[in-house]
Amino acid sequence: MNGRKMPPTERLMDNKGLKQKIAFEVERTSAYCDNSPAKKKAHGCKTSASKASDLFEAALAGAHREVNMLFSKYSEVLSERAAMDASQVRELDNLLMEARNLESNLKEKKDHLRRTLAIISDKLQG
């Protein structure tokens, strides 16, 4: 590779390619073992199975790290989003409280103005 990180889809395709390579190696090795003498067959098949097992374990460990990394990033994103949502909810609550206070203040001023106009009207009629 050239030092850049592959997107998850390319990494998954790499894992699939690795699995196919492992399967090919197992088939090739088992075919070779079947054509070899019995003494070599027992030793060669164990070695090839061990190599295939090691390759599979390495691929599995890589996939496990990849999944853990993706889950970690996903949980970070969810955590950040939850914090942002909580902040927005607090901001909306503050705006709502301010709007209610303004509404109450305007109602008081309206009532005061109505009373003042009533007093002025009574004086003009009287």
From TrEMBL:
The lineage of its organism: Eukaryota, Metazoa, Chordata, Craniata, Vertebrata. InterPro entries: TEX12. Residues 89-116 form a coiled coil. It holds the Pfam family TEX12. It comes from Esox lucius. This is Uncharacterized protein. Keywords: Coiled coil. It comes from the Eukaryota.
